Amino acid sequence: MTFSAPAAPTVHVASEVFPFSRTGGLADVLGALPAAQAAAGDAVMVVSPWYQDLADAGRVQQLGALAVDGVSEVRLGHERRGGVDYLFLGMEVFERSGLYHPDDVQRFSAFGRAVLPALHHLDIRPRVLHGHDWQAGLAVAHAHLSGLPTVCTVHNLQYQGRWNIHEAAGWTGLPDWAFQPDFAEFHGDLNLLKAGLVFADRVTTVSPTYAQEITTPQYGEGLEGVLQRLTAEGRLRGILNGLDLDRWNPRRDPYVMNYSGLRGKSSNRRRLRQEFGFDRAPVLGTVSRLADQKGMDLLLMALPQLVKNWNVVILGGGDPLLEAAFQGWNLHPRVAFVSGLNEALAHRIYAGADAFAMPSRFEPCGLSQMIALRYGTLPVVRETGGLKDTVSPSVGFTFGPATSQALLDACGEALAARRDKADWERRVREGMSLNFSWDASAQAYRDLYAEVLAGR
C-alpha cells in the first residue's frame, strides 16, 4: 500500500485517538470529529504518538523515518479509515507500555517539535492545524510561528503540561523571547497549554458554558486572565461536543439487548439487576473516573442514604482511596462496584440503569450524560459546563451546590418522578429523541476554520 499525501487537510494533533489509543473522552472526540468532517467532504488527518501498545498491534503502515532537531529519530506510520488519514509519530520516548508517565512534559515536547517536520517530510501542507489539550500546545505554537492558521481546543483546563522553565526550555525549540509571561511562561514554569492558547488564532472549549466558566477564578486554573483577554479579542468560544451515534446506538449495540423504546429498555434493566443480584428497587448507575473533578466523593458520601431507595452500580477507576472505599460497599446487597475499564459493562449500565449520576465539580463537556439520554437512562447531574448545556431539568434532574445533600435531593426528585409513570416515560422518550450527532459540531468547526482563514 502506498501513501498519497492529502491535499490541504485539516490536521488534528492529539495525544490519543479512538480506536488506536484511549484513556478517556479526548480519544472519543478525536475518533468522531475528524470522521464527521471527512463525511462532510473535507480532507482530514489526525497526528498522534505511535505508542508501543499501538505499535505492537501491527496495524500501521510504516512510512520511513526522519531526523528532527532536539529529538531522537522519528518513525512515521500511517493508516486510513473512514475517510481520515492517521499519522503516527514513533520516538524513543513512546517506547514503553501505557500512554502517560511522569515525564510527559518532556515526551510531548518532543512530540510537539516533531509534528511539523513530519508533515513537511511527507509533503503535507495543512489548511489548518487544530491542536487538542496541552500535549498539542507546542505543535500549535510552532505551527503559528511558521505561519500556519491554528486552532487550540481545551478539553480540560486542569491539565496544563507544566515544568520548571529552566530545565524545560531546551526541550521546546521555541525562541528565547517565548519564555516570558505573555507567552509560554507561567509562574516560573513552562506551560505547554498556555503556549497553545496564546499562539492560536482561535481557542475553543468543548461546551459553551465551560467557555464562560474558565474565565472566572473558580474554574480558570490560574489562566483566567489569559482567557479573559482571549474573550475580549473574540478568540475564545465554546463548541459543544457531539456523540458517536454509531458506537452508541441501543438499536445496534452489540453489548446490549437491542431496543428503540421503553419495552426493550425494561429487558436490559432486568438483565442488569440479575447480573448483580439487585432487588426491584430502581438502579442508579455511573461510569466514571474516580476523581475529585467527577464528584465521586459526593456519591460516596451519599451512598448510606441512596441505598435506602436505590440499587447503585459504579464502574470506574482512579483515586486509590476512593476505589478502596467503594470496594468496601460491595458487601451491601444494593451496591455493585467494578474497578477499571470495561467496555461491555459500561454499555450494559447505560442500557439497564434507570438513572445515571454525574455529580461533577466541573465538566468541560461530558459524554456520559448524552449516552445515558440516548439509552433512556435519565441523568442526575450538577449544573456545570456541558452538563448544564445538555441536560434540561424537564428531562433529567439537576442540582447546583457541589454537596452530597444536593445530589441526594436531585436523586429524590428522580425517585418521585419514577413513581409517576406518565412523567417518567415522557422524560425517557424526550431524552431518547434528542440529537447529539457530530454534524452540528463538525460544521461549527468548519465555520471557525473559514473565519480563521478569512482573517488571514
TrEMBL record:
Q: What does this protein do?
A: Synthesizes alpha-1,4-glucan chains using ADP-glucose.
What GO MF annotations does this protein's record show?
alpha-1,4-glucan glucosyltransferase (ADP-glucose donor) activity; alpha-1,4-glucan glucosyltransferase (UDP-glucose donor) activity
Q: Which HAMAP family match?
A: Glycogen_synth (MF_00484)
Q: Name the residues that bind ADP-alpha-D-glucose.
A: 22
Xref: Pfam families: Glyco_transf_5, Glycos_transf_1
Question: Which family is it part of?
Answer: Belongs to the glycosyltransferase 1 family. Bacterial/plant glycogen synthase subfamily.
Q: Which InterPro entries match?
A: Glyco_trans_1, GS/SS, Starch_synth_cat_dom
Q: What protein name does the entry list?
A: Glycogen synthase
Q: Which UniProt keywords apply?
A: Glycogen biosynthesis, Glycosyltransferase, Transferase
Which top EC class is named for this enzyme in its record? transferase
Taxonomic classification: Bacteria, Thermotogati, Deinococcota, Deinococci, Deinococcales
PANTHER family on file: ALPHA AMYLASE DOMAIN-CONTAINING PROTEIN, GRANULE-BOUND STARCH SYNTHASE 1, CHLOROPLASTIC/AMYLOPLASTIC
Enzyme Commission code: 2.4.1.21
The gene is glgA
> Reaction catalysed?
[(1->4)-alpha-D-glucosyl](n) + ADP-alpha-D-glucose = [(1->4)-alpha-D-glucosyl](n+1) + ADP + H(+)
Q: Does the keyword Glycosyltransferase apply?
A: yes
Native source organism of the sequence: Deinococcus proteolyticus (strain ATCC 35074 / DSM 20540 / JCM 6276 / NBRC 101906 / NCIMB 13154 / VKM Ac-1939 / CCM 2703 / MRP)
Q: Name one GO biological process term.
A: glycogen biosynthetic process
> According to its UniProt record, in which pathway does this protein act?
Glycan biosynthesis; glycogen biosynthesis
Q: Which residues form the Glycosyl transferase family domain?
A: 269-429
Q: According to the lineage, what is the superkingdom? A: Bacteria
